[in-house]
């Protein structure tokens, strides 16, 4: 049965991909991109990757779509036809595709438990996690502990992207919220936003600290937290959102998150371990691991929230009316 | 005995939800204009989704799963209508005309 | 038949990948190119997650009474890759906005024409 | 039984996709995206029960929130566009 769902979802994804290429209206393409993300996220659930599904839904269907839409709104909607007939690209693409498909013939079958990818370090992680780290979610333990260096690198990449967007788009603070004529139409949205804003933030904290036991962690929680603020900004205007969490604070937060992460590493060195070796952080190795994972997830979360909001503010503050 | 009753109830709810989802989907495909399609989507969002979630709650029994399902239910009954309302508002705002039957009665 | 089912995921992934690739190289609109890149990235995610799946396995969250789990390592790689993909998408879109400011267009062909005129 | 429900959900998603492709207005596409969001939530919930690990409903919760916020965001951005240039009708 799961096979059937897998096959149907992949088919739908393929059709959506073709439609995205064919369609000329970029706003429509942005909507299809959002659908594409949702479909791939549900595919990840079918393929057992719950953490990945959580991230893809929050990032692909949420923030990416909003950014693409904001860019379309800032530039132009219609796509011009290409000047040249796309014959050469078509040949290149078909040739590359054929070569890649030829390459897959040597790959192990889908779902094969003896595939080389399952023979290397993954069994060790699965086997050692309960004893060494003491958290049930192996994805969290690999992400935060076994491969903590990688994750530090990723967080730095996010931080750099935030700086890049800041350098390219700058920011414009809005002191006052414009009380334009359109605002009375937002009553329903505002009531709902007031109701949901605290719930979303609470849920983000749950995802952050429950990440050891279920799907979740710093990346996902950060994005959900930022989504809460985006909802607030949509309902009450960007100016009011910036009053709650001003731009200066965001820039500090982005740096603080990375620093917390690196500081945990240095702290563990000072306590006589290696860089990011959490078990020296407490008397009991397992408690130390818990503490370390908690702290670095917090750092990741803070950076991700800050960078997401920096990006969002950067894009949306360029839209003219500033109502959102 | 109690288990059997709960099971049957939950199957009834799930099947009912599925039927409403199907009806909503057909409506989205077949209705003539945007404003009529909104009605079809509302069926999916509230009745269809609600019944499926209730059916799952009956399966879950008294546990954290049911609490989460309740939370999803709670979110859904608020977000669905709000989103549809915002959509209708935005469409009206952009002067999208509803399709009117102007034949003589 | 088993050959077909065994490689179905990979083939669809390659078709998606090529769709994204085609959009990037053949379409002159810069936003469309970035969306093509997004499709390409997602296809890579699906490739990795398909490889991580083990028949009869379940999500890699340890619980009593379950012995087969899907591969957590690939999940970790893709989890971080998704966040990085957002970072690249955001940077790309920011660049598009700046290019539009400088050239007044998001069409690559028009930009080339303007560059040649200068 | 879960199988039946998930097949129905898949059919409904496919129908929603058809609507998203055909349009004709942007609002129809947003409507289709919103519907697919709802259906995905249900799909994830049913899948959890089907595979016997229903504790992953957090994902479904996130989907509800995200699809709501992105629908609202789309509408606000489109409203800004129609306000300034009068585009976005088709």
Looking at this protein, list some descriptive labels.
heterotetramer; C: 118 residues; mainly alpha; Helix Hairpins; D: 90 residues; flat; disordered C terminus
Explain what the structure shows:
- Chain A is 72% helix and 0% strand.
- In chain A, α1 packs antiparallel against α2 (26-46), α5 crosses α6 and α6 (138-146) crosses α12 (285-316).
- Chain A has 12 helices and no strands.
- Chain A has helices at residues 2-22, 26-46, 50-74, 87-104, 122-132, 138-146, 148-169, 187-209, 218-236, 238-244, 247-270, 285-316.
- Chain A folds into 2 domains: 1-118, NADH-ubiquinone/plastoquinone oxidoreductase chain 6, subunit NuoJ (Four Helix Bundle (Hemerythrin (Met), subunit A), Up-down Bundle), CATH 1.20.120; 121-324, no CATH class.
- Chain B is mainly alpha-helical.
- The longest helix of chain B is centred in the C-terminal third of the chain and has 30 residues, at 64-93.
- Chain C contains 4 helices and no strands.
- In chain C, α2 packs antiparallel against α3 (72-103).
- Chain C has one domain: Helix Hairpins.
- Chain C starts with a helix and ends with a helix.
- By secondary structure, chain D is mostly helical.
- Chain D has one domain (2-85).
- Helices cover 83% and strands 0% of the residues of chain D.
- Residues 84-90 of chain D have low confidence and may be disordered.
- The chains are: A mainly alpha (324), B mainly alpha (105), C mainly alpha (118), D mainly alpha (90).
- Chains in contact: A-B, A-C, A-D, B-D, C-D.
What's the topology here?
The complex is a heterotetramer of chains A (324), B (105), C (118) and D (90).
Chain A (H helix, E strand, L loop, with lengths): L1 H21 L3 H21 L3 H25 L12 H18 L17 H11 L5 H9 L1 H22 L17 H23 L8 H19 L1 H7 L2 H24 L14 H32 L8
Helix pairs in contact in A: 1-2, 2-3, 3-9, 3-12, 5-6, 6-7, 6-12, 7-11, 7-12, 8-9, 9-10, 9-12, 11-12
Chain B lengths: L1 H29 L3 H27 L3 H30 L12
Chain C lengths: L1 H25 L3 H23 L19 H32 L4 H10 L1
């Amino acid at each position: 049965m799961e096979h059937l769902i897998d096959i149907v979802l992949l088919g739908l994804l393929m059709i959506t991909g073709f439609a995205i290429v064919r369609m000329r209206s970029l706003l429509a393409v942005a909507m299809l991109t959002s659908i594409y993300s949702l479909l791939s996220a549900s595919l990840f659930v079918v393929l057992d990757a719950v953490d990945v599904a959580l991230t893809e839904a929050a990032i692909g269907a949420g923030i990416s779509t909003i950014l693409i839409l904001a860019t379309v709104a800032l530039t132009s909607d219609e796509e011009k036809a290409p000047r040249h007939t796309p014959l050469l690209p078509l040949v290149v693409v078909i040739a590359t595709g054929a070569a890649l498909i030829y390459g897959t013939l040597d790959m192990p079958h889908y779902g094969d438990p003896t595939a080389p990818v399952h023979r290397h370090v993954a069994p060790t992680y699965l086997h050692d996690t309960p004893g060494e780290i003491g958290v049930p979610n192996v994805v969290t333990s690999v992400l935060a502990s076994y491969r903590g260096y990688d994750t530090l690198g990723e967080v730095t990449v996010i931080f750099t992207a935030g700086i890049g967007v800041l350098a390219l788009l700058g920011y414009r603070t809005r002191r006052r919220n414009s009380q334009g004529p359109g605002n009375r139409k937002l009553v329903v949205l505002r009531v709902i936003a007031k109701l949901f804003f605290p719930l979303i933030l609470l849920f983000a904290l749950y995802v952050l600290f429950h990440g050891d036991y279920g799907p979740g962690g710093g990346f996902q929680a950060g994005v959900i937290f930022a989504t809460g603020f985006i909802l607030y900004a949509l309902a009450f205007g960007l100016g009011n959102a910036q009053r709650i969490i001003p731009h200066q604070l965001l820039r500090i937060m982005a740096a603080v998150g990375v620093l917390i992460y690196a500081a945990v590493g240095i702290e563990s060195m000072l306590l006589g371990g290696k860089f990011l070796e959490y078990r020296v952080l407490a008397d009991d190795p397992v408690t130390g691991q818990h503490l370390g994972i908690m702290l670095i997830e917090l750092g990741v979360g803070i950076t991700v929230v800050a960078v997401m909001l920096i990006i969002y503010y950067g894009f949306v503050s360029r839209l003219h009316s500033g109502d959102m | 005995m109690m288990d059997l009753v709960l099971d049957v109830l939950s199957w009834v709810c799930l099947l009912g939800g599925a039927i409403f989802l199907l009806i909503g989907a057909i409506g989205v495909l077949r209705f003539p204009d945007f404003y009529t399609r909104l009605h079809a989507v509302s069926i999916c969002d509230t009745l269809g989704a609600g019944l499926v979630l209730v059916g799952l709650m009956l399966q879950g029994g008294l546990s954290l799963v049911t609490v989460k399902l309740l939370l999803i239910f709670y979110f859904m009954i608020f977000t669905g209508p709000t989103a549809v309302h915002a959509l209708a508002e935005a469409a009206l705002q952009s002067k999208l005309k509803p399709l009117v039957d102007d034949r003589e009665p | 038949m088993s050959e077909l089912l065994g490689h179905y995921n990979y083939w669809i992934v390659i078709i998606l990948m090529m769709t994204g690739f085609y959009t990037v190289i053949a379409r002159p609109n810069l936003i469309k190119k970035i969306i093509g890149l997004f499709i390409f990235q997602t296809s890579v995610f699906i490739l990795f997650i398909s490889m991580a799946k083990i028949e009869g396995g379940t999500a890699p969250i340890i619980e009593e009474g379950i012995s087969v789990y899907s591969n957590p390592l690939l999940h970790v790689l893709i989890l971080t890759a998704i966040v990085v993909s957002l970072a690249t998408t955001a940077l790309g879109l920011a660049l598009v906005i700046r290019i539009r400011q400088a050239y007044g267009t998001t069409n690559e062909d028009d930009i080339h024409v303007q560059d040649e005129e200068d | 039984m879960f199988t039946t429900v998930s097949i129905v959900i898949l059919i409904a998603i496919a129908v929603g996709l058809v609507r998203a492709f055909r349009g004709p207005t942007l609002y129809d596409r947003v409507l289709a995206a919103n519907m697919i969001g709802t259906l995905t939530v249900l799909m994830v919930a049913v899948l959890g029960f089907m595979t016997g690990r229903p504790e992953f409903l957090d994902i479904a919760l996130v989907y509800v929130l995200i699809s709501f916020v992105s629908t609202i965001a789309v509408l606000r951005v489109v409203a800004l566009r129609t306000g300034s240039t009068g585009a976005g009708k088709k």
